[in-house]
């Protein structure tokens, strides 16, 4: 929009008519004061400003608006008497004017100038927009880079921990072998075995992440007995965590269609987290039941719980609750993989949790999913 500032109404009217005829939106002010008030409220692309006005003259108006943020990109054309001397013209430029036209105004020249200013304005706006986008993009790169570095450092640490344990147990094993102490050898071998299994799971998760990224996570779906795999998982979990009390509710008396190993992976992840994030409790409730034409499975713990704002992001890749990330080791990829697996079974995954009281992670899977071309 263009603002015409002139104390002579006849000048305003003639300029306004010509500019509006040429498709420009026009606003008017008949004094410096009125112009300032308008400029405070609205952004103008261009101000056509009469130099000689009673009260505040055009130069004073230009100087005053140079500090307005709303007028940062506004161009000013001064209208001055034909007799204007070099000093006046110079003052016009110093006070912030970009151009001047002498009266009586040659409408053709004025229109050409207005059109040029509009073009420059549009171009500079486009440039600013582009610069903003580029800066945002650079920030986003930087952020991705930072996340990657952080992930590499956490992943190396996570891999190093079981490695160090394995090294230590093997040294102890050597001594037990030398002593021919078979019972201790067996116990230590079991410990090595547990750490190797941990390493194996970590590496498998890392591989899954890259498969998800490249769209290569394959599923081998067939009908299988959910109860059987759940019994088996709980048995193994119980052996590895003899102090934990697993309380099982419900059962599923029909076969479900899916990738047995992948569904098993989700169940193990839920249970492992339920034990890990509840160090002061030894109870885990496991529910499995048929609800209409889907199965519902949940794992409830009585641990640290998760605040609402974190709950929304818990299934994001690499997301870990910052406040507890030092206390509990992890990579923040398990739940992300679980979500991918459940979604690829056309199911849903979710959480109910109260900080300090515990969490319940659940998933549903349709009993008779539509055949999925991707799987
Ligand atoms: P990891 O446990 O390796 O960090 P996950 O993807 O399994 O990765 O979990 C992501 C985050 O969700 C964890 O870092 C933790 O902050 C939170 N979380 C997961 N399960 C629980 C739970 N049962 N109780 C509290 N917080 C949990």
UniProtKB/TrEMBL annotation:
Name the UniProt key words of this record, in alphabetical order: Coiled coil, Kinase, Phosphoprotein, Transferase
Q: What is this protein called?
A: histidine kinase
Instruction: Give the 4-aspartylphosphate positions (modified residues).
Output: 50
**Residue span, Histidine kinase domain:** 154-369
| A single GO molecular function term of this UniProt record | kinase activity
Coiled coil ranges (UniProt) are 182-209
- Please tell me which top-level EC class this enzyme sits in: transferase
- Outline the extent of the Response regulatory domain: 1-118
Among the Pfam families in the record, one is HATPase_c
Query: Could you tell me which PANTHER family the record lists for this protein?
Result: OSMOSENSING HISTIDINE PROTEIN KINASE SLN1 (PTHR43047:SF72), TWO-COMPONENT HISTIDINE PROTEIN KINASE (PTHR43047)
Report which reactions are catalysed by this protein: ATP + protein L-histidine = ADP + protein N-phospho-L-histidine
Q: Does the keyword Kinase apply?
A: yes
Under Enzyme Commission nomenclature, its number is 2.7.13.3
Q: Give the domain of life.
A: Bacteria
Query: Which species does this protein come from?
Result: Kaistella solincola
């Amino acid at each position: 929009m263009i603002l015409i500032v002139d104390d002579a109404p006849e000048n305003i009217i003639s300029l306004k008519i010509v500019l509006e005829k040429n498709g420009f939106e026009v606003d008017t002010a008949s004094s410096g004061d009125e112009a300032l008030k308008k400029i405070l409220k609205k952004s103008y692309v261009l101000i056509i400003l009469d130099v000689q006005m009673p009260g505040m003259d055009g130069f004073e108006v230009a100087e005053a608006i140079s500090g307005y943020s709303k007028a940062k990109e506004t161009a000013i054309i001064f209208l001055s008497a034909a007799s204007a001397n070099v000093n006046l013209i110079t003052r016009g430029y110093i006070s912030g004017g970009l151009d001047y036209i002498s009266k009586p105004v040659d409408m053709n020249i004025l229109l050409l100038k207005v059109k040029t200013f509009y073009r420059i304005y549009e171009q500079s706006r486009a440039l600013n927009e582009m610069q903003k986008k580029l800066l945002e993009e650079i920030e986003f790169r930087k952020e991705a880079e930072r996340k990657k570095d952080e992930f590499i450092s956490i992943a190396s640490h996570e891999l190093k921990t079981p490695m160090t344990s394995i090294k230590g147990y093997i040294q102890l094993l050597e001594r037990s072998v030398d002593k021919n102490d078979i019972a201790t050898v067996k116990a230590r071998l079991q410990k090595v075995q547990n750490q190797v299994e941990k390493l194996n799971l970590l590496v498998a998760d890392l591989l899954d992440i890259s498969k998800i990224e490249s769209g290569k996570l394959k599923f081998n779906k067939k009908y299988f007995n959910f109860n059987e795999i759940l019994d088996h998982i709980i048995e193994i979990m119980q052996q590895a965590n003899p102090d934990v009390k697993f309380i099982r509710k419900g059962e599923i008396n029909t076969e479900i269609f899916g990738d047995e190993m992948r569904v098993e992976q989700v169940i193990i992840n839920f249970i492992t987290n339920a034990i890990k994030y509840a160090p002061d409790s030894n109870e885990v409730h496991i529910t499995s039941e048929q609800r209409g034409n889907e199965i519902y499975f949940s794992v409830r713990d009585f641990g640290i719980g998760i605040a609402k704002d974190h709950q929304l992001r818990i299934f994001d890749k690499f997301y870990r609750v910052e406040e507890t990330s030092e206390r509990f080791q992890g990579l923040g990829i398990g739940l992300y993989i679980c979500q991918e697996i459940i979604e690829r079974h056309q199911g849903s995954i979710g959480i109910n949790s109260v900080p300090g009281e515990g969490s319940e992670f659940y998933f549903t899977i349709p009993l008779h999913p539509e055949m999925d071309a991707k799987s």
